[in-house]
Amino acid sequence: MLRTVILAAARSSRCERLVATAPLTRNMVRRFVAGPRTEDALRVTRALVDDGLTVTLDNLGEDTVTPEQASAVRDEYLGLLESLAADGLTPAAEVSVKLSALGQTFDEQLAYDNARAICAAAEASGTTVTLDMEDHTTTDSTLDILVKLRADHPSTGAVLQAYLRRTESDCRQLAGAGSRVRLCKGAYREPESVAYQSARDVDRSYVRCLTILMAGAGYPMLATHDPRLIAIGEDRARWFDRGPDQFEFQMLYGIRSADQARLIGDGYTVRTYVPYGNEWFGYLMRRLAERPANLGFFAHALMGR
Ligand code: FDA
């Protein structure tokens, strides 16, 4: 119930204004977001790479409504990739892209063209692109665009969400050689017709999906902070004889940093998903919805305490 309310608030511009103008929410935002500027993203990436992590950078923004906005997002990624290469941060850092920010909602071809430009720039910078997954109405379109992008840029990866009933089958399709799949639980509010509703069913689906990916010939990216699922991931790596360069764990910036350090200490590859930019509101609300305990911290910040 609380999760539903928070995810509804994520679409409210009144709520966004309230949060943006509250005195101390900046600190709250900074816990999960590198900062508003490209330089913030580069600074945080440098620090994480120096700590032994790899990184994927997300320029925050979604639901772009004009071609000009979509071009601006594309250009931000092109500049970011150039800076990452110039600073010697590739291949340790790659980028994550939301197709809705590139125009998918109103022009799929435009989103594809913009994504293709980003994939070409990533390749020139010696790194990769992973397509984020948004709500279920976009899954087919995103996977269609992935197939087209992979024809020219085979290292392009995609996210699959274990809460969707279709995902086991998508994992089978995408478990082949050269494929990069980031498996997460899923962060949107989805109807029962398409998504498992209970945490237990989502976790079970995650285990089935991760087993398919780890048994396959692709490169699985296990994106979760859930200690039980991480332990199962470690276990499947042993079953399927996968070394630390044949899969990776991924977590979000600001969440369970001690676990990220522990996994690095154990020799695993760990990638931190680092969001940056001004459009942080929808992202922040999804993080709050995942963990209502964050709300206490957030309420204090809103009230300026
Ligand atoms: P779960 O929510 O059960 O959390 C397990 C534990 O992790 C919690 O008990 C808590 O300790 C900690 N934790 C989790 N979330 C927290 C939070 N917000 N604040 C503080 N602690 C928290 N989703 C999507 O729909 N599309 C996408 O493209 C992506 N991309 C993506 C990339 C990466 C690298 C990650 C790690 C996650 C995503 N997600 C995503 C989000 C994902 O779907 C999911 O909502 C979150 O990862 C939370 O799920 P967990 O698997 O961590 O389990």
Summary keywords:
TIM Barrel; alpha/beta; 8-stranded parallel barrel; binds dihydroflavine-adenine dinucleotide; 305 residues; 50% helix
How does this structure look, described?
By secondary structure, the chain is of the alpha/beta class. Strands 1-2-3-4-5-6-7-8 form an eight-stranded parallel barrel, surrounded by seven helices. The longest helix is centred in the N-terminal third of the chain and has 20 residues, at 67-86. The model has no long low-confidence stretch (mean pLDDT 91). α3 (25-32) packs antiparallel against α13 and α6 packs across α7 (139-152). It has two domains: 1-32 and 287-305, no CATH class; 34-279, Alpha-Beta Barrel (TIM Barrel). α6 (108-124) links the parallel β2 and β3 (129-131). The protein contains 13 helices and eight strands. The chain has helices at residues 2-9, 13-21, 25-32, 38-50, 67-86, 108-124, 139-152, 167-173, 199-215, 227-239, 257-265, 281-290, 294-302, and strands at 54-59, 93-97, 129-131, 157-161, 180-184, 219-223, 248-252, 270-276. The chain starts with a helix and ends with a helix. The site of dihydroflavine-adenine dinucleotide has 24 residues, from β4, β5, β7 and α12. It catalyses: L-proline + a quinone = (S)-1-pyrroline-5-carboxylate + a quinol + H(+). It comes from Salinispora tropica (strain ATCC BAA-916 / DSM 44818 / JCM 13857 / NBRC 105044 / CNB-440). Pathway: Amino-acid degradation; L-proline degradation into L-glutamate; L-glutamate from L-proline: step 1/2.
